[in-house]
TrEMBL record:
Keywords: Secreted, Signal. One of its GO terms (cellular component) is extracellular region. This is Expansin-like A2. It comes from the Eukaryota. One of its GO terms (biological process) is anatomical structure morphogenesis. It is found in: Secreted.
Length: 263
């Protein structure tokens, strides 16, 4: 019953927040780049060195309105620059791995992602610009046939403390709640977001563990049940297959979308 209540609360939150969101709309802003990918991989989302493996290192730091106190970690955006002499028309897809506190740019890309926006042979000239005018929009994260994964953080301490983060979350969604229970039990507890993409609980059930992920989908929310994720002898620092993938698209109540401009 407690788990159902938490789900309903999350759905109400999702509906109210998505009605004001415009992630999928086309935005105009500016973007800069980090010369070192490590600056992004050690960022606020806490992906660590794993970050540079996402989308071949096409990652980005995003402003607070995109970062969303960590719920925007893992979100994907298509970004293209505006100068037709230097920039191609497709741009590149980046994944949010860090918080950008600058008021000059919405996004700070890895240098690899920044160069990918250039026409053939113009990548060095584009890098020399430092900051460029861009257009960007939210797009689904596509990991092909790869399932979502759960990484047990090094801060986890048996038997009472568990910290996890989700890797390779697909679709165009945000996880807003995670429930946890022993496999075969209906006694669900809840996890809280600690920082970035990290979720924690100090009430860890014994035995093998199952999860329920509540995330944005449609105009409200959806729950995905992962029946067996962590074995009884789970270990800190290891990655476990969630056995499920999220492919949903969150719909947003944005009245002034300019998606038709992107072609």
């Amino acid at each position: 019953m407690k788990g159902c209540f938490l789900f309903l609360v999350a759905v109400v939150f999702l509906f109210s927040s998505s009605a004001n969101a415009c992630d999928r709309c086309l935005h105009s802003s500016k973007a800069a780049y980090f010369s070192s990918a490590s600056a992004l991989s050690s960022g606020a989302c806490a992906y660590g060195s794993l970050a540079t493996g996402f989308f071949a290192g096409h990652i980005a730091a995003a402003v607070p309105s995109i970062y969303k106190d960590g719920s925007g970690c893992g979100a994907c955006f298509q970004v293209r620059c505006n100068d037709p002499k230097l920039c191609n028309t497709k741009g590149t897809t980046v994944m949010v791995t860090d918080l950008n506190k600058s008021n000059k740019t919405d996004l700070v890309l890895s240098s690899r992602a920044f160069r990918a926006m250039a026409v053939v042979g113009a990548d060095r000239n584009l890098l020399r610009q430092g900051i460029v005018d861009i257009q960007y929009r939210r797009v689904p994260c596509d990991y092909g046939n790869k399932k979502m994964q759960v990484r047990v953080e090094e801060s986890s301490k048996k038997p009472n403390y568990l910290a996890i983060k989700l890797l390779y979350q697909g679709g165009q969604t945000e996880v807003v709640a995670i429930d946890i229970a022993q496999v075969g039990s209906s006694n669900w507890g809840y996890m809280t977001r600690s920082h970035g993409a990290v979720w924690v609980t100090d009430k860890v059930p014994t035995g093998a563990l199952q999860f329920r992920f509540v995330f944005t989908a449609g105009y409200d929310g959806k729950m995905v049940w992962s029946p067996r994720v962590l074995p009884p002898n789970w270990e800190a620092g290891k990655i476990y297959d969630a056995g499920v993938q999220i492919t949903d698209i969150a719909q947003e109540g944005c009245d002034s979308c300019d998606d038709h401009i992107w072609n």
